[in-house]
Amino acid sequence: MAALGGDGLRLLSVSRPERQPESAALGGPGPGLCCWVSVFSCLSLACSYVGSLYVWKSELPRDHPAVIKRRFTSVLVVSSLSPLCVLLWRELTGIQPGTSLLTLMGFRLEGIFPAALLPLLLTMILFLGPLMQLSMDCPCDLADGLKVALAPRSWARCLTDMRWLRNQVIAPLTEELVFRACMLPMLAPCTGLGPAVFTCPLFFGVAHFHHIIEQLRFRQSSVGSIFLSAGHLIGPVLCHSFCNYMGFPAVCAALEHPQRRPLLAGYALGVGLFLLLLQPLTDPKLYGSLPLCVLLERTGDTKAPLCS
Fold first, then answer.
1. Quick check: 128 pLDDT over 90?
2. Catalytic: which of 22, 59, 110, 175?
3. pTM score, whole prediction
4. Is 208 tagged catalytic?
């Protein structure tokens, strides 16, 4: 090598091929077209999910059991077919994730316990004020409340309640499957992992604005209260289900509560602890290897902050 001299070294450095993104190496479309395909695929998924709710024409409100049962059918069909959209996106862009589709979508055993417990704990900390308010307004004490919550009869009653099944089971599972598990792998190669994490809830939030039409149609809420409560931005299914159960924090009721001071202190403490613990409890190292990082490496993005 030394015999080659400076010119030889320069020749070797020039002739060394640079690493190209997966789509370019496979002769696929350029980055710009890949982004358009990704955004269009996500929009198609969002429209399909919301559109499936209105396949059944009915003059009944959305909380009527007959409406809920019909929507269960259409939403489950669309959610079951949503992974096919990711497969089609992979074929159109030429991107090979380097891992199985189910693993890429988050169906894996590695890190499952911290992934189930830590985000739920963090969300409950954020809702410290509403939880205190719920306990203050509850007529029974903690021991009686736990007995009722753990009683088989209570669970049997919940499993036959269509609204409970929708809010706590079907909606969290299907919405997280469509709006996170399917959309995140398609958006990450285009925007990067960080922006994609914040972009997916935007599709989720926009898809929930159809509730505005229904609530105004049946005069269930005012315009102001609807815009305050439409949509959640919580990711994991357990957190989604917990937020659906808690609803939007009743801040106005807390301001008029007889025990206003400790209650507002709980609200402030919950928000403060949430901000303090957000980074350590969402450290990717706690949840094992990230399949999305493998995808980003194969598309040429080797400097993703969440993957380093």
1. yes
2. 175
3. 0.74
4. yes
